[in-house]
Amino acid sequence: PLMRIEGPLIIVQLLETTLLTLVNYASLMATNAARYRIAAGSMKLFEFGLRRAQGPDGGLSASKYSYIGGFDGTSNVLAGKLFNIPVKGTHAHAYITSFNGFSELRNIFLEPKCGGKPRDLLELALTWRTNLLPIFKLFSVEASEGELAALISFAIAFPEGFMALVDTYEVQRYSCCMNKVTSSTKSHSKYR
Known about the structure:
Elements: H1 9-40, E1 46-47, H2 55-68, E2 73-74, H3 77-83, H4 93-97, E3 109-110, E4 119-120, H5 121-136, H6 145-157, H7 171-186
Parallel strand pairs: 1-2
Antiparallel strand pairs: 3-4
Helix pairs in contact: 1-2, 2-3
């Protein structure tokens, strides 16, 4: 058992709900996180549930107990501050939709970590897009320039922590190519 309470029946019954409330959710979250950790092996796991949590306290608790259960970090900045959990995040959907095209990019160059010639990330992204469109059976007019501009902007701003959201795409349709794209982008990890 997780805990054992002994005492007069009336006192123990009065404590039961409070103690179960303090333990059940924490145990549920930590156990679930531990199962994910076992399944994921050495892959990084981050908790991003604050917007869907059962209130602000539930969000803090979920972040804390997911970390205790084995997750590597959270998107919850307050939980990171309060519980010393590494904070990791993505971009907001509003950030993506705020871009209309490539003309809004203030910087298109990705600087190498150890010095050297910067890479034109816009040119590189357009080359990859051209190569991938036939694989996805898409036409260039179907690709959003604003969306690609936003992703380029974010990748340049956060080169070591870039993580693109895929929940706005037809994930099943494109999943066949995800490994190819992922393996090709790993070759650019020497850039900051």
